[in-house]
Amino acid sequence: MPELPDVSVFKDYFDKTTFKKKIKRVEVFEKRIIKGTSEKELNNVLKGKFFKKSGRYGKHLFAEIDSEAGLDIHFGMTGDLELIDDLSKIPPFTRLLFIFQDGEGLAFEDQRIFGHISLVHNFDDLISRYRLGKDALEITAEEFQETIHKRKGKIKSLLMNQSLISGLGNVYADEILFQAGIHPESKGSRIPEEKIKKLFSTMNKVLKTAIKYAAKREDFPSKFLINHRKKNEDCPDKCGKIDIIKINGRTTYFCGACQELF
Ligand SMILES: [Zn+2]
């Protein structure tokens, strides 16, 4: 499921594949993928235009068309982008296709259709529409401390709450808590200030490392939890076994030996 580092990679791919290309038209193959708009409206807005620039916020990709309009692209659970040079060979789970004047296309693929594409006015409109909290790579240490310290909820749920901090999902929340040595069921308000500082620096380090590896999880350093997400697997720190619990219905992997409960 795409999280902040994955969407960062999608942004680079989007920039590389759409730069300086005039949009000829948009084809929608699955209506459920477009939210609050129609194929006709998308074509009215996009035809003959260029994607001027893009931005990532949390798990959203914003693609600016002009000063009044842009696209919000959300990848849901299985969203992906693919440049198509032969329009007669469209990938099977293509839900929407941007067709460019040069004959190429950019497919938005999404097998499970939890992603969406919407029209928004601008970047700020996107952020306020979803009531997104600060992006995980933009929030300051002080804001992070304040956000966590005053809440009684479980730290894993706090990290995954997009209206508090935007960009983390199930896998990276587990990874960050593992590397910071904090048990995922710890209450935000009980975590000591020094540990929240550690959590903040770990969050930045993990996300930046993931982006450096182009979000290819199989290439991550072996000390990461990410490739040890199995019950009874050895902890990458060799101190115990990986355990599984459910938090807010989400399967959570952690090491009871090296992650302290507060
Ligand atoms: Zn451990």
From TrEMBL:
Short name of one Pfam family: Fapy_DNA_glyco
Keyword DNA repair: yes
MF (Gene Ontology): damaged DNA binding; DNA-(apurinic or apyrimidinic site) endonuclease activity; lyase activity; oxidized purine nucleobase lesion DNA N-glycosylase activity; zinc ion binding
Gene3D superfamilies xrefs: 1.10.8.50, MutM-like, N-terminal
Catalysed reactions listed for this entry: Hydrolysis of DNA containing ring-opened 7-methylguanine residues, releasing 2,6-diamino-4-hydroxy-5-(N-methyl)formamidopyrimidine
Single GO BP term: base-excision repair
Record keywords, A-Z: DNA damage, DNA repair, DNA-binding, Glycosidase, Hydrolase, Lyase, Multifunctional enzyme
Domain Formamidopyrimidine-DNA glycosylase catalytic: 2-115
Presence of the UniProt keyword Lyase in the record: yes
Family stated for the protein in its record: Belongs to the FPG family.
UniProt protein name: DNA-formamidopyrimidine glycosylase
Source organism of this protein record: Sporocytophaga myxococcoides
